[in-house]
Amino acid sequence: MNxxxxxxxxxxxxxxxxxxxxxTQKLLGWFGGGGIEGTAHAMEAMGFHPARESAVAxxxxxxxxxxxxxxxxxxxxxxxxAAGAMAGAVS
Length: 91
Known about the structure:
- This protein is mainly alpha-helical.
- About 80% of the residues lie in helices and about 0% in strands.
């Protein structure tokens, strides 16, 4: 394995792990997150309706996309799921 491949592996695993951790904060309340209820309240305050379903979609997009990205599985779909979830965060 050359340095470029190693660098891409570290970048993919690191980014995937951060996304997965952020998604589990939303879904399960791990790592100091609010869980579904806290995320739903935040989504409602930001104007997302229905709030609970938006919270589940955001959490699954981040956690699922992050895990798949870290494992190197379905990387185009994983990247699209994570990017879609994060695009909703900036709107």
